[in-house]
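$ ./design --mode recover --in tokens.txt
reading tokens...
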């Protein structure tokens, strides 16, 4: 049976100390950051009574003085909120026009997608594949339709807010 080669200290490659490697990070050599020490108020010590004598209580521990801390930030929701200026008629109408433009573009996209899906029926040999294809088409058209109506309702709401602002003359703040 062959013997495993014996290992001598002279046969092993010499290891370089970590201090000789310039590119190696030295995180392991950094001292941990100690938490700030609590300040203890010193009180003059009275002579300690003999604990073996009956009827004497052990001395009370010295009270710990609170360390000076930074003031607590104001809790959420308690900071004063500056009143917002009501929107102008121009802001309402321009926002309505922008949302209406997106609604029109999305409506045209919805129509073209529905027409494209109707022109190209699903060519599947499997019943399951045909059902999955129909579900995906319905999901895509439904998502774009939902976005269309969200933009359309936003446009109508902004237009109504602009009319209300124009009629009331911005006498009452909104919100």
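writing sequence...
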């Amino acid at each position: 049976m062959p013997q495993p080669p014996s290992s001598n200290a002279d046969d092993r490659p010499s290891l370089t100390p970590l201090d000789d490697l310039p590119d190696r990070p030295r995180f392991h050599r950094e001292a941990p950051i100690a938490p700030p020490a609590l300040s203890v108020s010193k009180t003059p010590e009275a002579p300690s009574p003999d604990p073996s004598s009956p009827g004497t209580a052990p001395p009370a521990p010295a009270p710990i003085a609170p360390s000076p801390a930074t003031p607590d930030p104001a809790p959420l929701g308690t900071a004063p909120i500056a009143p917002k200026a009501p929107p102008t008629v121009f802001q309402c109408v321009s926002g309505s026009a922008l949302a209406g433009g997106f609604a029109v573009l999305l409506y045209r996209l919805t129509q073209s997608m529905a027409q494209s899906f109707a022109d190209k029926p699903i060519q599947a040999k499997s019943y399951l594949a045909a059902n999955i294809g129909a579900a995906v088409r319905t999901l895509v058209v439904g998502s774009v339709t939902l976005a269309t109506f969200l933009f359309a309702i936003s446009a109508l709401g902004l237009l109504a807010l602009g009319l209300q602002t124009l009629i009331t003359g911005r006498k009452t703040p909104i919100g």
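exit 0
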